[in-house]
Amino acid sequence: MCEVHVYLKKGESEEKLIESVERVEVRGNLVTLKNIFGEEKKVQGKISLFDSSLQKILLEPTAS
Which residues share a beta bridge with 31? Predict the structure, then answer.
């Protein structure tokens, strides 16, 4: 399996948004995340990091 965990950057810290994500869709500033459990989250932001060795995606918030 190749699922990753997605975090949102908040100042100097990171908040975990969703675990076991298998699909990421980016349309402009809207990032849609879907995990293996059928959960879906939509976030206004941009991907600032993808690290497969850490199984991690980091998002930075953007203005709507």
Answer: 26, 43
Where in the sequence is the domain holding 20, given as residue range(s)?
A: 4-61
Q: Which residues contact 27 (CB under 8 A, 6 or more apart)?
A: none
What is the number of structural domains in the chain?
Answer: 1
Tell me the whole-structure pTM to 2 decimals: 0.90
With b meaning 16 or more CB within 10 Å and e meaning fewer, what string describes 26-64?
eeeeebebbbeeeeeeebebeeeeeeeeeeebbbeeeee
φ, ψ of residue 36 in degrees (nearest 5): -70, -10
For 5-53, the pLDDT digits (tens) are: 999 999 999 999 999 999 999 999 999 999 999 999 999 999 999 999 9
